[in-house]
């Protein structure tokens, strides 16, 4: 039997409207959460149009002209805006009947490209029992027929499996939110043998070591250490009501080990260094987990990934900004301070889940609003943007 996708009702309306606006085809991403029993789709986001597409659309429509790189770049940008527990669950295509027969091949190709692009940036490894099926949703713009199939992204030879696509209202009403603040103080030595300009690579290596520390940390949920296999909400009263007040919030403390356990063998190495990078500050992290009897280990895994992702994403954004403003050939390597972008959270209309973004100190609210419209096809009010942190360096 194939997987079941429970889908926020408003997505059906969004996809129908998109089908009437965009001809001959439209593509986009499905955003949500995997669980062992079923997957939850809470948003669908169309691929932003490219400026030159207007001229190209004069010829006969062809799916061969799909810009794979543009779609995977969009997926990478969107994945930065997702808090823990949410991921790009698949891709969709709305196409005219004459393009329908090539649609599934195009979707299959896109699913594997998107997954390859996203996994390259991750500093964590998927768990063995993790769901690796991703959705390919095809909708005919004329008949409105919906066909949902899945592909196993861990298997390059994977063939399509049928899946159920079911709409449901108030999908996230009973979801649980988890939040924590993590104090970061990471020291990354720069080896004398390593070229100085390779700061990005050195930073990534340092973050890789730090991410293993986070993986080995102890997580206290509302002040308690809970067994991984117990239910997260065990012993708690469930709330019912509207989507906002229905969310239960759990406060989490992260305890990192100061040193290796006595049983672990430690080997010290002396290396000649030409400098170092220090990352310091407090980062706000957040994860969401479905309300269908979630396990403690699912919640902790989602929060761990948010902690690791939020720091590596910010460093990536900072390096992109430096290359943009100063060029890749920067030669001056004295002591420098760079402020990492701050995290902000924005509510999703009709949902208890918030999405995230990053803001440099000199960025205006209007720029962030534009980014939400471009990346997530969602208008955002300036007063709804909650900056979560002080400045980190």
UniProtKB/TrEMBL annotation:
One of its GO terms (cellular component) is membrane. It comes from the Eukaryota. GO terms for biological process: intracellular protein localization. The keyword Membrane applies. It is found in: Membrane. Keywords: Membrane, Transmembrane, Transmembrane helix. The keyword Transport does not apply. May play a role in the trafficking of a subset of G-protein coupled receptors. This is Protein odr-4 homolog. The gene is Odr4.
